[in-house]
Specification:
The complex is a heterodimer of chains A (78) and B (360). Chain A is mainly alpha-helical. Chain A is 56% helix and 0% strand. The radius of gyration of chain A is 11 Å and the shape is globular. Chain B has a single domain, classed as Thiolase/Chalcone synthase (Peroxisomal Thiolase, Chain A, domain 1, 3-Layer(aba) Sandwich), CATH 3.40.47. In chain B, a hairpin with a 3-residue loop joins strand 15 and strand 16. In chain B, helix 7 packs across helix 8. The chains are: A mainly alpha (78), B alpha/beta (360). At the A-B interface, helix 2 and helix 3 of A face helix 2, helix 7 and helix 8 of B.
């Protein structure tokens, strides 16, 4: 799984158009990024990547890239 | 503890009560906007709730459920050896509510009575406690009451305002010679205490003018420190970590599997969580009854409310192999496998303000 493959899954989660998000997109600028989306993100990562991301680190994330980092870091065993 | 076994007890009857006033999510359209409300409802699955009017306590719902149960089962009130009131919404700071209930129900003065403070894991803990009193505590008949009301929820806090419903339930547990075991898994992780909490208004942080003041958080929700705070993402992460493990443990200890269980009744947290758990645990949704669409998340009463709402016909007529599981505030969790059936099970009670029995 590469970084580029994770972003479309986040787009589905926040009902954004395909290709609408980049790593630089601020979460605060995404209409549907809220506490429900954070729960959805946890479920998506659990289902597709087999681990539960830290809710604290999700809350601290500022950009889409930060969310991608969370997934990639775990996959690399960090 | 995993695999605690209690035998010599049976569930003899279960009754559930809710306030007669139904509330719909449309009431929140003006405050949060229709689109936002529908988004929450779509995720939580809570389309209706019954909420107590001011002055109606959890104990009133429990007393109504107990009175109906005692009447339908034709049980002698003097035969109740112990009454347990399990709730986070007592009548008073003190005295404990079970004492008031002993009088209101006309139970014997030789009856043991006490309160237990637990939430979503409460039904399983209550069965274990009642079973322990029967198996080792010399009791022959225990009346187990539980439930909560939502009076400490801010209607301006979207993360909690649309989820919780009020309910009270009563169960009668009897000593029996019949074979059959209740097999329990129980657990606690106090690191989660901060994620579901009313921070002020008791000893740790007494009530004052500042704790009563509602403030807006970063998500735009407004609540005071004397109202319920819930971190939904943390609770969900906890659920994913502990609930599948708890279910596996109780099935292993019972030498059962999902195929041999007739019904899996989980605490009615919200639809998203329950459907996700079902998918991950490969539990068919037909085996996982839901009551949250009609009654919301009813805290410790959610398992008996679901049994009354969804399984009343079956449980009145035949024995079923059940897996019950509760999880939430504390964090605290518990699961049990047991055989329940041919029990006294009145219809859902809808309690009006003018129907409260023996109000103190």
């Amino acid at each position: 799984m590469t970084r580029k493959e994770i972003i479309p899954q986040i787009e589905i989660l926040v009902e954004a158009d395909a290709g609408a998000l980049s790593e630089q997109t601020l979460l605060s600028e995404i209409t549907h990024w809220d506490s429900l989306a954070a729960v959805g993100f946890i479920a998506m990562v659990d289902e597709n990547f087999g681990f539960t991301p830290s809710p604290k680190r999700i809350a601290e994330s500022k950009t889409v890239g930060d969310l991608v980092d969370l997934v990639i870091a775990n996959l690399k065993g960090q | 503890m995993s695999g605690v076994r209690i035998s010599g007890m049976r569930i003899a009857g279960i009754a559930s009560a809710v306030p007669d006033r139904a509330h719909l999510p449309t009431e929140f359209y003006e405050l949060f906007g229709k689109e936002e409300v529908l988004k929450v409802v779509n995720s939580t699955g809570v389309h209706k709730r019954h909420l107590a009017p001011p002055g109606m306590c959890t104990s009133d719902l429990c007393v109504a459920a107990a009175n109906r149960l005692l009447c339908e089962g034709k049980w002698d009130r003097q035969s109740i050896d112990a009454v347990i009131f399990l709730s986070q919404s007592p009548d008073y700071f003190l005295p404990f509510t079970a004492a008031l209930i002993q009088r209101r129900l006309g139970l014997s003065t030789e009856c043991a009575a006490f309160d237990v403070n637990l939430g979503c894991s409460g039904y399983v803990y209550g069965l274990w406690l009642a079973g322990s009193l029967i198996a080792g505590g010399g009791m022959r008949r225990v009346l187990l009451l539980m439930g909560d009301n939502t009076s400490h929820v801010s209607e301006e806090d979207k993360s909690v305002a649309l989820i919780f419903g009020d309910a009270g339930a009563a169960s009668i547990l009897d000593k029996t010679e019949e074979p059959g075991e209740f097999i329990f898994v129980l657990g606690t992780d106090g690191r989660g205490a901060k994620n579901l909490i009313i921070p002020a208004g008791r000893c740790r942080k007494p009530s004052d003018a500042t704790t009563r003041l509602r403030r807006e958080d970063k998500d735009g929700n407004r609540r005071s420190e004397e109202e319920l705070y819930m971190n939904g993402a943390e609770i969900f992460a906890f659920t994913l970590a502990e609930v599948p493990k708890m279910i596996r443990q109780v099935l292993t200890a019972s030498e059962k599997n999902i195929e041999t269980i007739d019904s899996v009744i989980l605490h009615q947290a919200n639809k998203f969580i329950l459907e996700y758990l079902a998918k991950r645990m490969k539990i068919p949704m037909e085996k996982m009854p839901l009551s949250l669409g009609e009654y919301g998340n009813t805290s410790s009463a959610s398992i008996p409310v679901t049994m009354t709402h969804c399984l009343r016909d079956q449980l009145s007529r035949r024995k079923m192999d059940l897996l019950l599981g509760g999880f939430g505030i504390g964090y605290s969790w518990g699961a049990v496998t047991c055989t329940v059936g041919e029990i006294v099970m009145p219809e859902m009670i809808f309690l009006g303000m003018d129907e409260i029995d023996g109000k103190p």
